[in-house]
Amino acid sequence: MKAKDVMLRIALIALVAISLIFTWIIWFNPAHLEHRATSNVSVKTATQSTTKKSKDTVYLPVAIYQQKDGSKHRLINDTHSMSGLMRKAMKAARVNKAKTVKTLDADQYAALLKQDNTVQMVYSDKMSWHLFNKTFFTKGAKHLGGEFEFTRIVVNMRHETVTLVNDSTRATRRLTFTTGPDYGKIAKAVKSANHKYLVEETRMHGREVALYPDGLEVQPFAYLVDSQGANHFVALLMGNKSTSTVDSKQNGDQTIYTVNNNNQRLTADKNDGQMRFDNFTTDGPKKTRQGVLTDAYNQMMTLQPAGMEGVRFTHYDTDEMTVTFRTYVAGLALFNQTMSGTVAVTRTNSSLSIEFSGANLSVPVPTRETPVKLPSTSTVLANVRAKGFTNSQIEDVQAGYRWEKDDDSTLVIDLVPTYYVCIAGSYYDYSDIMSGDVTTTTVAAKTSTGVNSGKVNSSGALTTP
After folding, report:
1. Cys-Cys link to 339, which of 244, 314, 335, 357 (CB 3.0-4.6 A)?
2. Fold classification of 224-364 (topology level)
């Protein structure tokens, strides 16, 4: 790293430290304390507004495609969320109703996805219509109708229509509007993209997967990391209980905090900051997808996460009853060998668990790193197959970021562009497959024992021993 970059990072870190010191001084100034009692109402109102705004962004699509002139491109904006810009352009519309379902055959569905002059907003897993109606638009549908699930929003710019699509079942529902979207604003949002990557979609295990035939150039990033210790989360999750005593004990590298006769437990790993909160006196799961996703969001917010701008819903595992949220940076998912950037909420009939990390992204740090050229997806898949993995094992492939500790500062995290390949239910870094750290033997052993130590499972959460 260049000396000038190092000095720039050190200066920024110093400024942040000074800011924290002044914040502490202001917070504990007696004059400030005198006004705290009178500011509760405004603080509560602001918090409620922030919470609603966060929920609206968490349940946005994770990718935006433009189909035009016979080809499809993924749209990326380095500084703004493309899905956020699309929602901003469309939120004033009001749905009248979702029309009767129409299920397409494979050829009809392929034709729909390749329909020219369309903008397509894609989720990584099935979205609830009722939740979408509540969070995407300012006013809910005039006639809400029954619940259904979809994975894609297809906006036809030529015919000015909006269709909700389920990639898995190929079911489609056209929306009618009492107040239609402003298609001029949608076109303006599309033009704001400063990167357009050629994509071709192919079907893998019942879902559409984006392939990059020309590869893609991805900008590395560096971020200051916001780190919170276990005591912070003990106070948040266990501090308001009837008992004032929180017991703790050491078990190897893990510290286990318990309260209420072990009915609530927080486990923290000192090596990687990974934590898990368990509550064994809780209600069972909600009955609807909207209820499950809303409850999972509410549980995540009990952690009071520092930054929510890039956090998105990514998966709901109906077998494990786990909802996973993942951080996205410049449109691409952030993966890690621990839970950093990820929150997984599991609610069963007998317990609630929240898996998360005390370390999360804070603010970007200036960097002069040049873009990384990633190979075409076909090259990646061919190389993975050459290592002995079969098409039936390969379930997904994504371009994303790997979380790495910075060489120069423990306060900085580097985001390194790479591919992640989902094999037998877990995502593996493409570079680890190529280096031989991940092999057919190690994957088979972990799959047979149910252990995927340090790897990311198909829900986006980590599977741990």
Report:
1. 357
2. TATA-Binding Protein (3.30.310)
